[in-house]
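Quick log. Single chain, no ligands specified.
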Amino acid sequence: MDDLDKKKFAEIMYGLAEDFSVEVSKPWLLMKFDLLKEFTIDEVLKASLSIMANWEYQRMPPTAIFLKYLGRKEITSNSKAQIEADKIISHLRAYGQGAIPVLVDPISKHLMLKRWPYVNWAKTVLESQITWWTKEFIEAYKAYDETDKQQFLEAPKNVLKLLDGIGTETET
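-> predicted structure:
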């Protein structure tokens, strides 16, 4: 799904909520949309209709149930890492070293900015090394995903405040 599907998605979720006599909030809708956006709006509609027909409880089903009805299991760290590595490799093959990929995933973004700066990595990686790089990327990704990654991916707020002033000219 993409942003154009948000209205239809909200309609589907409100319909489900009404069927289960629950209220849903806008933040909940946005989070649910983000969790399910890898699916098409038609897949979400089909799963929602199946849930309405088969769900035995008088509460809104959790996202894990949607994933089961959508025919996909929960995404593991290993799967997420493989997917992200594939995106990076596909981008490299399609656009070469000159076009930096737009990475949404914060761990991938961190790894391709700090550990393997994309431009330098893309210039030097050989096709024969891609398999080994993928294994290393997956291990690094899993390490961040299975820990409190925010402490590693972002500088503390007090440090960011200090950094804001660096490099700006001041009048004396």
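Residues 77-153 form one domain.
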